Amino acid sequence: MIALLDCNNFYASCERIFRPDLILKPVIVLSNNDGCVIARSNEVKKMGIPMGIPLFKIKELVRKNQINLFSSNFALYGDISNRIMNIIKNDIPNTEIYSIDEAFLDFDSLNNYKLKALDLIQKVNQWTGVPVSIGIGQTKTLSKIANFFAKQSNNNIFYIHKSNVNFYLSKINISDVWGIGPNYSKLLKKNNIFTPLDLVQKNDKWIINNLSINGLKIVHELRGEKCFDVKFDTPPKKNIRVSRTFSNETNDYLKLQKIISTFASKASEKLRMQNSLASSIYIFIKTNRFKFNGKNYKLSGKFNFDYPTNDNSMIVKKSLKILAEIFSSEQSYKQAGVMLGDFVLSNKFQRGLFEDLKQKNKRLKLMKTFDNINLNFGSETIKLGSEEFYDNWRTKRNKLSPSYTTKWNDILVVNI
Amino acid sequence: MTTPFIKFIASAGFPSPAEDFLEPTLDLNKYLITNPPATFCVRVNGNSMNGARINSGDVLIVDRSLEPKTNNIVVATLNGNFIVKKIIINKKNIYLISDNGEQSKKIKIDDQSDFNVWGVVTSVIIKLP
């Protein structure tokens, strides 16, 4: 049996821990640059404000309903998330942290699922102040569906017993199934498949032809056969992406060079932290999405390294080369990103025939020193000369709450 | 909070006699915090709890996992505002007491008030000037 624990309106709930005056009041958390809605309290959901909508489109609603706005405070959300995951792992060691606010828990060895779930909900809520809900089912995919119902139940818990799986599968929309994206939902609806129940009644051959092997796995999971295990030791990431939307558009080439350098360096640091080497690098720059009637211009380029690497100066050099190829001064850019991919583990890579190993070992040593300095003296203590040193392009966060749990100067002050 | 992971630097002369007895340095976190995921730090501003040896500017260590017992100092929310008070719990009622030495004020919590204990204060950190 697998349980999915999901924090309710996580970012909004984190803000409320230190703002009890906002309990039962509408709260919205905005994306980087205060652009779009990325978390909504129940009160906001009831007003019909959708996820992802840009703030400028709901300005009037926000004013009229006195909605409380927050910039995203990832220092706070990350810390609260760690606390919650630690609480769960202490009780259920076989826990897979799936995202900042979700975890799959292996309930196989338990006798009383509901009792354990109730205990966890109560504990997380009391210890951290964050309300959570738990869905329980035979597979990960079913536990996700159970969680959908848990959110609507009054004790935040829902258990789908195998004898009535089909009843619940008929009650939700096909697009709400984990792993069924917008393209698949479109295709399925075209074929008169509107609920997961419609889908599980199709034969395997039809499914594999239309949805590929991954779709078939989802269907088997919906039928109660486990295809995805709870992975409690998280495997290293398969690609690393550092990207950001800027507060102001820019077509300044020098500025973009600095931004790309910073991202590439940050990505290579993350790469080294998980002991991987990257074989490819991908760079993109994007224009403003809301300026050209929803159309955006995305320019991108990719480079494959001869030998896998995690050397920051190498990665930065190649990133800048790609940027030089894709940059056009006719557009202004709102977003840029660097993605590293095709990883190999740094202790398992195949040596290149013409690789200068002496030089390589020297660079590896340098990287280790580089990382140690930043680890011991704070991140960004040393950087490459091509990186940005001033923060003016970084994100706009006008409504940022204090970092209550990570900075001494920001801790909650109570007037007594 | 430091754990000596590099053992003693190899000395040219005698090996250190302490090497086999190496222990981590005293850890204030361990001393002050029993349940890290449930523990938060809060600073107070004001003098209404001087009688309980809590002064303006002090940092309170607050454990949210503890059940409040009578005579505990708690951080609580009353009608949406944070307060720090001594709590008295008896069979019928809950009282909050502020105590600045000379006079103590007692508030009775009734059904009308929106009251929640946020956490129990377990330590007070005072930095001397």
Task: Please give a structural write-up.
The complex is a heterodimer of chains A (416) and B (129). Chain A is an alpha+beta fold. Chain A is 38% helix and 21% strand. In chain A, the strands form three sheets. Chain A has a five-stranded mixed beta sheet. Chain A has a four-stranded antiparallel beta sheet with strand order 9-12-10-11. A three-stranded mixed beta sheet of chain A has the order 3-2-4. In chain A, strand 7 (132-137), helix 6 (140-150) and strand 8 (157-159) form a beta-alpha-beta unit. The longest helix of chain A is centred in the middle third of the chain and has 21 residues, at 253-273. Chain B folds into two domains: 1-32, no CATH class; 34-125, Umud Fragment, subunit A (Ribbon), CATH 2.10.109.10. Chain B is elongated and about 75 Å long. Chains A and B meet through helix 4, helix 5 and strand 13 of A and strand 1 and strand 4 of B. Strand 13 of chain A pairs parallel with strand 1 (39-45) of chain B, so a sheet runs across the interface.
From the structure above, extract its key features:
heterodimer; A: 416 residues; alpha+beta; four-stranded antiparallel β-sheet; 13 strands; 21% strand; B: 129 residues; mainly beta; Umud Fragment, subunit A; 2 domains; seven-stranded antiparallel β-sheet; 1 helix; 7 strands; elongated
CATH superfamily of the largest domain in chain B: Umud Fragment, subunit A
Q: Low-confidence stretches of chain A at least 5 residues in length (pLDDT < 50)?
A: none
Largest sheet of chain B: 7 strands, antiparallel
Oligomerization = heterodimer
Q: Report the total helices of chain B.
A: 1
* Rg of chain A, nearest Å: 24 Å
Largest sheet of chain A: 5 strands, mixed
CATH topology of the largest domain in chain B: Umud Fragment, subunit A
Largest interface: A-B, 22 and 29 residues
